[in-house]
Design brief:
Residues 40-68 are annotated as: Disordered. By secondary structure, this protein is α/β, with parallel strands linked by helices. The chain is 36% helix and 11% strand. The protein has a single domain, classed as Spore Coat Polysaccharide Biosynthesis Protein SpsA, Chain A (Alpha-Beta Complex). Helix 2 (85-98) packs parallel to helix 3, helix 5 (170-181) packs parallel to helix 12 and helix 7 packs across helix 10. The chain is globular.
């Protein structure tokens, strides 16, 4: 009986071995997976074999790492702190992927404190051009001696009670004042003629295949924008009074053929609160460093509104550009698709969006919203609105 059981175990073991050998030999005849982009890819002419769906070939190849032609004396500039590292990393990646990997422009980072090694290491690894790191002088990031500290503190408390955005923030006020009157004077910025301002956590939705700095220079532009809107009235109650005081004192700085109609509906008697959103700007640094702009900023600074109210750099820059530049020197980049919370500029024009690999939803486009001032810019310059804008209103 024991011998019979042992014999049956041998037979079962032999059968199991035969089954395993069968499966091993069968699997060796299966061809390896044919992954596109690796060995033996589908032919671009046929789009693969009859059993797989076709794919669109990249017949033109990838864009070159550096575009041919002379580059401008230009840089990106970002005001950031060490704690912003991962938010600015996102922005850099957006700018590099959509634009700068083709041109390799430099990047200047400014901070009211010293940048740490991690910030420098991460950002320098992401940027295709050179990176430079600068500390803001204390006198450019502090209360001027002519500001009444008690009055300024009382204003902040009142704005906090009224729940005005950034109304009680000291650092936000220093930032607005610095962006309004000092960033272009930093020693690192003195090496450049053109700047592109980039904020943390912005997004670029479309490929940019031309040199925007060269476009500005070739077309005699000095300031540009992608979004425009109305400013919070509560933050700038006396700004226009300060501007009128400046224009009365320095009439020589006001340009003929300016964009006053963008700012005012009554020939300058009052301000309609329209401004270009300055978290995106491509502009000319020599204009900002001119006597006209320095006189303008100095006049506004001594009026005290950066601290006694909450003047933003956006209306300050916008009013200066609208009054000191000819209207044709200001450019709207419809083709630069841009997002900064909470607003989106998605280019109007379906074919453009397709051609430039845009991933923005045109329904999110802010341009033709009732709170946008972009229509006013088109009307001022007698520019036909882009085809299809009606569908986005």
């Amino acid at each position: 009986m024991a011998g019979t059981q042992r014999y049956l175990r041998y037979i079962v073991f032999a059968l199991i071995c035969l089954i395993l050998l069968f499966f091993i030999s069968s699997s060796s005849t299966v061809s390896s997976a044919n992954w596109p982009g690796y060995a033996n890819p589908p032919s671009p002419q046929t789009g693969g074999d009859a059993k797989t769906p076709g794919t669109t070939p990249n017949t033109g190849g990838l864009p070159p790492a550096v575009k041919e032609g002379d580059r401008m004396n230009a840089t990106f500039v970002t005001l950031a702190r060490n704690s912003d590292i991962w938010e600015i990393a996102k922005s850099i990646r957006q700018v590099e992927d959509r634009f700068n990997r083709k041109f390799n422009y430099d990047w200047v980072f400014l901070n009211d404190d010293d940048f740490n090694d991690e910030f420098k290491k991460v950002t320098s690894a992401l940027v295709s051009g050179k990176t430079k790191y600068g500390k803001i002088p204390k006198e450019h990031w502090s209360f001027p001696d002519f500001i009444d500290q008690e009055k300024a503190a009382k204003v902040r408390e009142e704005m906090k009670e009224k729940k005005i955005i950034y109304g009680d923030s000291i650092s936000y006020r220093h930032m607005c004042r610095y962006e309004s009157g000092f960033f272009f004077r930093h020693p690192l910025m003195l090496d450049y003629e053109w700047y592109w301002r980039v904020e943390p956590s912005v997004e670029l939705y479309c490929d940019i295949n031309y040199d925007t700095f060269k476009f500005m220079a070739d077309n005699k532009k000095k300031y540009s924008f992608t979004l425009s809107l109305y400013e919070y009235v509560e933050t700038i109650p006396t700004l226009w009074d300060a501007v009128k005081n400046f224009t009365a004192t320095f009439p020589q700085h006001i340009s003929p053929g300016n964009s006053m109609k963008f700012l005012s509906d009554d020939d300058g008697k009052s301000y309609n609160h329209c401004h270009f959103w300055s978290n995106f700007e491509i502009g000319n640094l020599n204009w900002l460093r001119s006597d006209a702009y320095i006189d303008y900023f100095t006049s506004l600074d001594h009026a005290g509104g950066f601290f006694y109210e909450r003047w933003g750099d956006a209306p300050v820059h916008s009013i200066a550009a609208a009054l000191m530049l000819k209207k044709e020197e200001i450019h709207f980049f419809n083709d630069i698709a841009y997002y900064h919370v909470p607003f989106t500029h998605c280019p109007t024009g379906e074919q453009y969006r397709l051609d430039h690999k845009c991933h923005c939803n045109p329904k999110d486009n802010f341009d033709w919203n009732g709170y946008s001032c972009t229509s006013r810019y088109y009307e001022l310059n007698n520019i036909p609105k882009p085809e299809g804008y009606e569908k986005e209103q």
